[in-house]
Amino acid sequence: MRTREARAVPAESGTDTAIAGQAAGRAASPVVISVSGLIKRYGDVEAVRGIDFEVARGETFGFLGPNGAGKTTTIKILCTLANATAGTAMVAGHDAASDRDAVRRNIGLVFQDTTLDTYLTAEQNLRFHAELYGVPRAAVLPRMRQVMEMVGLWDRKDSLVSTFSGGMQRRLEIARGLLHAPRVLFLDEPTVGLDPQTRSSIWTYINDLKGREDITIFLTTHYMDEAEHCDRIAIIDHGKIVAEGTPEELKREIAGDVVLVGPEGPPEHARDILKGQDFIRELTEEDGALRLYVDRGETAMPQIIRL
User: Apex CA 95: angle with CA 94 and CA 101, to 5°?
Assistant: First the structure.
């Protein structure tokens, strides 16, 4: 399955020149994340087992898999929070192992568990983050207003974070991750533990973000329905990528019907006739019967009968 062509979304006007200049000066390379042969071992346990993938500029890339599949380990390596055992991980043109400071300047990160200081106000949390990332003082207030309005929290900037609901805290964390105008925003299970209505609201803000910021989004999730929001998806299981493509491609690959054929003669003869047919994706033999995997059983059946 091919990688989609990269698309760049222009940054929203009105941001301070220091922040806007940072976005305007970004490299034109279509590949923002490149992972090759990545391995991570914890003792005898191989959590990530030689994975390869690329993420294009402007994409929303979903890293989908069950709990314990290797999603969080991979995102920690990409964000310089863990060292790979082997392989390479390039983020925004920098090596995550040898050029950590450069990677960190170019990424925003929303953790699975909240890292906000609930004893501070929303504005105080964001100002502290701006200091850490060296956002120019003249740019802090306009940029803070921009990202907080984006997630619908500007009117709560003076409220203590302890008064926020779980969904509001997650939205504030997304705003904080965007404050320094990163090239890549990493979202680790951004809607875990939230009710369905709040999950839907978070995705509304994430999708709206793509139209406002020149940014690539890399998110991990174990919710199948969230994959629909992504431009491309990689499915990881037991540390290995088992499928990769657009949501439409993966649905075509995974979906379909199974037709069981009990041939009157030798199954080998029927298998030889059927295996060359374009409408059959896969053919297996089971107890003298043939199991055919097809896209649409209702259209495949007449063709099988004619054969």
Answer: 70
Please work out, in degrees rounded to the nearest 5, the angle formed at the alpha carbon of residue 242 by the alpha carbons of 49 and 65.
85
- Which region holds residue 70: left if phi is over 0, alpha if psi is between -120 and 50, else beta? left
- Cβ(109)–Cβ(188) under 8 Å? yes
**How far is residue 292's CA from residue 45's CA, in Å, rounded to a whole number?**
37
Report the chain's terminal Cα–Cα distance, integer Å.
31
pLDDT at 97: 97
Alpha-carbon torsion angle 133, 114, 108, 204, nearest 10: -130
Per-residue pLDDT of 221-238, as tens digits, reads 888 778 889 999 999 999
∠ CA 267-270-275, rounded to 5°: 115
Show the tokens assigned to 296: 């649409």
CATH class of 31-245: alpha beta
pLDDT of 103 higher than 60: yes
What is the model's pLDDT at position 248?
85
Structure tokens at 125: 């949390």
Supply the pLDDT for residue 249: 85
